[in-house]
Design brief:
11 strands; about 290 residues; nine-stranded antiparallel sheet; 8 helices; two-stranded parallel ribbon; putative xylanase like fold
Length: about 290
């Protein structure tokens, strides 16, 4: 996930998932074919349906940690590619492709999602609680819907980032200048891990699910993974770019995914947050991730 190098490190259990990219996946399309496909999309289609169709074309795409960059400088990786993703860039590119009304809009949308304002490394949304989530809520791309689906089971947690946080090896790997290192307390609504299955079937397909762990003082984030909820048949799935075991984008049964996460002890998984995607033109931004 992004340049944080905080991706999950567990051995993944193999479930129903493709072993190779789906026919007609994004990596197989030429830029012209992609443009034609986006242009032909149903103009009145709901965004949740667009998210499902777009993310489905990523199934089987190989996993690669931090595959996107600025094309030069600190991170010279390309600014856009469809042949490899990690958990965050899979979500970011799916959002950009789903929101675009034509292919020419994709780079601009992706830039707005990935950066606070300017498309430079120091201004990238590196940290989820402090940057990626609040900036995309502020811009109108996301609404926090955790409490909508968690109801009374919803709890509020905090991520505390201090100057000491930035002395750790993992934080220093971000190579952010001191004046661009966020500090503060950032609040987030979560559904506790042990209560999620009680609410899972009410969460609509296309909802972004964010995995939240305990707050460790030397970690700059407590969010280590994310993907899309997919309701299929009588079960709930997580469509995500998984590293160990899969090494590609898969649909994984949510119950299997949660059972594995519940076994982590070194860095305990606390729960999940849920976000609904929007076109930034839409009114009504909803609740925000709060900084104190």
């Amino acid at each position: 996930m992004i340049s944080l190098a905080f991706a999950l490190t567990s051995t993944l259990l193999l479930t129903q998932a493709p072993s190779s990219p789906v026919p007609g996946g994004w990596a197989e399309l030429t830029p012209e074919q992609r443009a034609t496909l986006l242009k032909a999309a149903e103009p009145g289609a709901q965004l949740d349906q667009r998210l499902l169709h777009v993310s489905e074309r990523f199934l089987g795409t190989r996993y690669l940690a931090s595959p996107l960059g600025e094309g030069s400088g600190v991170d010279p990786d390309p600014t856009f590619r469809t042949d490899a993703v990690d958990c965050l860039t899979f979500v970011e590119e799916t959002l950009a492709l789903s929101l675009a009304r034509q292919d020419a809009e994709v780079p601009t949308l992706l830039e707005h999602i990935r950066y606070a304002s300017s498309p430079v490394y120091e201004d990238r949304n590196h940290l989820m609680e402090a940057q990626w989530l609040p900036n995309n809520v502020r811009k109108g791309f996301l609404t926090d819907v955790t409490r909508r689906y968690g109801g009374e089971d919803t709890a509020q947690v905090r991520k505390v980032i201090t100057a000491r946080t930035w002395t750790s090896r993992s934080s220093q790997e971000l190579k952010l200048p001191k004046d661009r290192q966020p500090v503060g307390t950032f609040s987030l609504d979560i559904i506790p891990l042990e209560r999620l299955l009680a609410h899972a079937r009410q969460i609509p397909s296309g909802t972004i699910m964010v995995i939240v762990r305990d707050d460790l003082p030397l970690k700059a984030t407590r969010i280590t993974h994310l993907g899309f909820v997919v309701q299929k048949g009588k079960r709930t799935w997580l469509r995500h770019a998984a590293r160990n075991g899969y090494f590609r984008v898969v649909d994984e049964d949510l119950e299997t995914f949660l059972a594995r996460n519940a076994r982590y002890t070194k860095w305990k998984v606390t729960g999940v947050s849920l976000f609904e995607a929007h076109h930034p033109d839409e009114a009504g931004k909803g609740a925000v991730v709060r900084s104190q």
